[in-house]
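User:
Can I borrow your eye for a moment on a structure tokenisation matter? Would you put together a sequence-and-structure record for a protein of your own picking? Please set it down just below, with no commentary around it:
AI:
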Amino acid sequence: MVNKNRLIRLTQKLIQINSQNPPGDESRIARFVQNYLKGLGLKIKIYEFKKKRSNIVVILEARTNKHSLLITPHLDTVPAGSNWKTGPFSGKIKNNRIYGLGATDCKGNLACAIETINSICEDKVHLDYNLIFAATADEESGSSLGLIPLLARKILKPDAAVVLDADDFGIIITQKGLIHLKVKIQGRRAHGAYPWRGLNAIDIAIEIIREIKAHKFFYRKNKYLRPPTVNTGTIKGGDKVNVVSDWCECELDFRFLPGTDAKDLLRDIKNIIKKHAKMFKIEIEGIQKPYCIDENHSLVTHLKEAIRSFRIKPQIKGSEGATVMTFFQDKNIPALACGFGSSCCAHIADEYVKIDNLYKGSLVLEEFLKNYKFK
């Protein structure tokens, strides 16, 4: 049985362990989780792809040992920043909320997963599949030291996956892809009093950005996602106010929908740049594919049933931002994201999670795991 008081204390203890990324050190929190679960007779392993960047993997083995389901929250948080009133590592309880860095993203979800596993073991529940629990490193900086190598090296080989990194019982079945790129433009230097003698790279960059933002990129509508977006993240150029700038660099963030190929998007972007710049270079800083799972997949239907059983209305959603769901598709592993954090709380000062969310979330997760069936 899920123990509410134990869950609250666990959430507080997890918050009190510093796992900010950057700088990046999940070793303390991974060891805490390892020690916490050690007494349950489980197979527990820690994997590191860089010193102190720890990933913990736990397996609850089924008797039949046929299929496997993965549940995966992450261990790291963003940096705390400033302007906290409660203290980022306090775990303070106020107005039925637990405050602290990562309370919503993602230590509350981590606590729910651990408490659910604890309850299943205590009640001697035998699942019809192998349950894999992986609490990963480096999610806040791209997962190159966490989920990506765990999948690439086949340490994790589940038949299906639930990413525990969402808010208010939302079931995320689709998300946008992203392209991060840097555009380097070369102009021609001249005296600022005679701009016609030069070629101003900053002016060229402005025209490129203006046309890219006005361009109607092709996309397929998705009822859970907004249309594609582009954001100018950084721009810099020039050496002095009275010199025509012969260089400019800008970084652009594109978010695109399922059904759009990153190669087609990049082709359109390059064609726009070529219209304005004679000499330029495009550096790809990152690409993630968009993702979508069918609403009728058993992951979705079983999770909806579990949520409804506690008189909560399940909400099917899409994610405008990137989650680790996308990394499963290259391995042909169906995945969705769900979680029990508090909306609009991730990455803010005085981050909190509602205790009611944690308790009901653990009950929902336990109900889902007990009743999940592979087709």
